[in-house]
Amino acid sequence: MTTHISVVGTIGTPPRLIRTGADVSLCTFRLAHTARRYDRETNTWADGDTSWYTVHAFRGLGDHAAESLAKGDRVLVAGRLRMRAWQSEERSGITAEIEADAVGPDLRWGTTRFTPAAQLDAGLAVGAASIAPSAAETPAPGTAPERPAAADPAAA
After folding, report:
1. For the region Disordered, what residue ranges are annotated (predicted)?
2. What phi and psi, each to the nearest 5 degrees, are found at residue 79?
3. Which stretches of 1-151 are assigned E, i.e. beta strand?
4. Does pTM surpass 0.90?
5. What is the DSSP letter of 148?
6. Which residue from 66, 50, 53 is spatially nearest to 3, judged by alpha carbons?
7. Residues with Cβ < 8 Å from 149, sequence gap 6 or more?
């Protein structure tokens, strides 16, 4: 039985791009999810326990994740959960791993512009989407970001 999971969290290690023996791209990083709860008695938010996941993104998703993500980014990861037991000479434990089907920025904390892979491959764009906009792209507080005007079919 496969368990599917979606986790929103913070990337805790720099994403690493590895080529497997079969020349398949693999991007791996650690993801921290800290539960938050509202304490009605003190009228404050409090952090709960932090759960750590090892995320594995393969092939094109791995290439794009390695190009787009950095330690500290807030992301949403969806994929298949696997619990893997491990043991060393001094310790043993269980690691929660997610084989990612999708990875993306958590837009609660920033904005992004998406660049489709076809444009990247064709050399029409310089880079992949980034969660950190440039200062020129950051709207003033309380204002909506500018959206490109819709194309006028009559003008074509």
Report:
1. 134-156
2. 175, -160
3. 3-11, 16-19, 25-39, 44-58, 74-87, 92-105
4. no
5. P
6. 53
7. none
